[in-house]
Amino acid sequence: MENLEEEYIVISKTDIHKRIEELKNDYEERYKANDNQWCSIIAGQITALEKILYKSTPLIPIVENAIQFGKDIKSEKAVINENFGSPFVDYEDSTKETIDYISNLKLDV
């Protein structure tokens, strides 16, 4: 068996919930039509998506922890690093900017 490294993906919890609802509606229709084979397939898909949600971790707290960790290990003054295209800001002054960034964080998945 191939040795796989642990990889992560970002998924939309809302989209998964919507898909589960769609599948449940489809399941009800198939059940009424006595289509047991499709009901079994749909039930498996619902279970798989629910397991994904159960094992998932919200992204925002992880980003917040990473930002806080960066603040904790750095000095109070800014460090200029041209690799990022702009200088870092003074960490003491960046708290509001960090909160604004996190609260407005949106990912297109």
Structural commentary:
This protein has 109 residues and is mainly alpha-helical. It folds into two domains: 13-55; 59-103, no CATH class. Helix content is 59%, strand content 0%. The radius of gyration is 22 Å and the shape is elongated.
Note the topology.
Blueprint: H1 13-32, H2 36-55, H3 59-73, H4 95-103
Helix pairs in contact: 1-2
Could you tell me the number of beta strands?
A: 0
- Number of domain units: 2
The major pleated sheet works out as:
none
Q: How many separate helices? A: 4
Low-confidence stretches: 77-81, 85-92
Radius of gyration, whole Å: 22 Å
Summing up helix and strand content along with how strands pair, one would put the structural category as mainly alpha
Beta fraction of the residues? under 5%
Q: Kindly report how far apart the N and C termini lie.
A: 30 Å
Helix content: 55-70%
- Helix and strand pattern: HHHH
Mean pLDDT over the full residue set: 76
So what's the overall shape?
elongated
Give descriptors for this structure.
mainly alpha; single chain; 2 domains; 4 helices
